[in-house]
Amino acid sequence: MTPDELLAYCGRNGGARAARVLGISKQCIGIWKKRGFIPLPKQYEIQVKSDNELVADNFDPGRDYVAELKGRVQQAAGLTACR
What we know:
It is a single chain. The chain has helices spanning 3-10, 14-22, 26-35, 40-49, 65-77. It is mainly alpha-helical. The longest helix is centred in the last third of the chain and has 13 residues, at 65-77. The chain starts with a helix and ends in a 6-residue tail after the last helix.
């Protein structure tokens, strides 16, 4: 998704509304617009909060992102060696 898609989805005062919902500053929204992209973790958050009306780039509905993240966290903590 692009910053323009997010702002269009949020409607009037989209930047302020999006910032409030995402718990970030309006300046962050402005930076995303200037750069032309939204960081992928925020795209996933927006996808969830928009009830899949906005979809993250490269989102694969068959992939278990949570399990992958847990595996990476456990590996980084050295917990996988304890199994």
